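Pipeline run #58 for the internal structure catalog. This entry was flagged by the ingest filter as a single-chain record with no existing model, so it goes straight to prediction. Upstream metadata was stripped on purpose; only the residue string is passed forward. Reviewer on rotation: M.T. Logging verbosity set to normal.
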Amino acid sequence: MALLGFVFQGEDHGIIFQIFDELVANGRAREALDGGFDPSPVVKLYIPGAGAIWLLSEISPYDPDLAFGLCDLGMGFPELGYVSLCELEGVRGHFNMLVERDFDFRADKPLSAYLQAAREGKEYA
């Protein structure tokens, strides 16, 4: 849980636990379904002004540092994959900007649809 603390600084702990629980539940569902699981993203992380975006849909039930989702570093090669939350905590953008959470983000489609839009160069999040 502390791994997400850098993104949720100053936020109500109830909301943090709710988001974390949903991410872990999706991680368990992916494992149980063994393919064919296409959840909506739970949280959007980004670096202001850098074009880097992570739409995370789940966290590994075995390793709370390992999140899965759409990883788009803004270089034209978005992909679905795993990312270390500890590594995200150390990422810096222009002017030493930190990774932030987009409080206004509300997923309205599955992760695969966001990936398709990102690969087509469309605005997606």
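catalog note: The chain has three helices and five strands.
catalog note: The longest helix spans residues 13-33.
status: ready for reviewer M.T.
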